[in-house]
Design a protein that fits this description.
Length: 327
């Protein structure tokens, strides 16, 4: 995912335009699902690190423009470089895990499993941020993870091989590392502008992608590998086909739309108002899966999706209502 289901910290609000904020978050989520759909389409022919590199080169240009708007290049100076590097590496793991899963899993299934990220954020905020989380939100977290179990089907030992089970865990790894990134953002954001953090992340993506290219860009580690996710990670870089070049340009443009739309959404409206609308990505992912791959989730998978979405929405709404309480 690009910057999947981003839940940035609450800025100092200068505007309160919830309708426009909701419009931008819906636009951003739509762009994310199109981004994920294009990456899944291209996953059979190109390596993931090549796609990430091209997207990040365009993304860092957009982020540097935002840096200029937020105060100039001076805001890129930081006294916490190692923490920013760690956050960038966590984002790299998040994206690699999610996109590797997309090479195998249906778009809707991978997206739904990733949506446990708000539940991980709720749990991690207890030991890391010292926040109080009451029994209502803990219960919602348990319901959400019950939805994960339904989708993972641990009882179906004969239906899923070891490789398939590992792939099913990749969106959960992505969600967990994403949650850690957002927890870190709450601390780092106190002294660092959002645009500067975006530059650090895009820069980390570029460096890691180039590292992949130097080590595995010729595809030598992909020889004899049958797993589609590993092939996606390890195959050789190659020049895009004529038609695919337009898709790569679209990925870069979508990266800019996603970053701008989400930033605008959280600038114009309160996070508690905007965040629940991130779940519009879920039906859109189902729609793309149906239109392009003729795939609709099974009844059991849909039940798991409903549990995960319901739990996440409850956590958002409870956060909005509780007014600082612990429930």
């Amino acid at each position: 995912m690009a910057i999947l289901v981003k839940m940035p910290q609450a800025p100092v609000l200068q505007h309160n335009r919830p309708t426009l904020g909701i419009f931008f978050i819906v636009l951003g989520m739509a762009a994310i699902t199109v981004n994920d759909m294009l990456i899944k389409l291209l996953s059979g022919d190109y390596p993931l690190h090549q796609m990430v590199f091209l997207r990040s080169v365009i993304g860092i240009v957009f982020s540097l423009a935002l840096v200029q708007m937020e105060g100039g290049f001076g805001i890129l100076r930081t006294d916490k470089p190692l923490l920013h590097l760690l956050r960038g590496l966590l984002f790299v793991v998040c994206n690699l895990a999610f996109f590797a899963a997309l090479a195998v899993l249906p778009l809707a299934d991978a997206t739904a499993l990733f949506f446990v990220a708000p539940l991980f954020i709720t749990l991690l905020s207890i030991p890391i941020l010292g926040e109080k989380v009451g029994y209502r939100r803990i219960s919602a977290v348990l319901v959400g993870f019950a939805g994960v179990l339904v989708m993972q089907r641990p009882w179906a030992s004969d239906a899923l091989g070891t490789g398939e089970r590992i792939v099913l865990l990749l969106p959960l790894l992505a969600a967990f590392t994403y949650a850690l990134c957002q927890i870190m953002a709450r601390r780092l954001g106190a002294t660092t502008k959002a645009s500067a953090m975006a530059v650090y992340i895009q820069g980390t993506f570029i460096l890691v992608s180039l590292g992949f290219w130097l080590v595995a860009g010729d595809g030598r580690f992909a020889d004899g590998v049958d797993n589609a996710s590993l092939q996606f990670l390890l195959r050789a870089w190659r020049w895009p086909d004529q038609g695919d070049g337009l898709l790569f340009l679209a990925l870069g443009a979508l990266s800019g739309v996603i970053g701008y739309s989400i930033s605008q959404a959280y600038r114009l409206a309160q996070p508690a108002t905007v965040a629940p609308f991130e779940y519009v990505a879920m039906p859109l992912a189902v729609l793309w899966g149906w239109l392009i791959w003729d795939y609709l989730p099974t009844a059991l998978v849909m039940f798991g999706i409903v549990l995960i979405m319901g739990a996440g929405l409850y956590v958002f709404l409870r956060e909005r209502q509780r007014g600082g309480g612990a429930a």
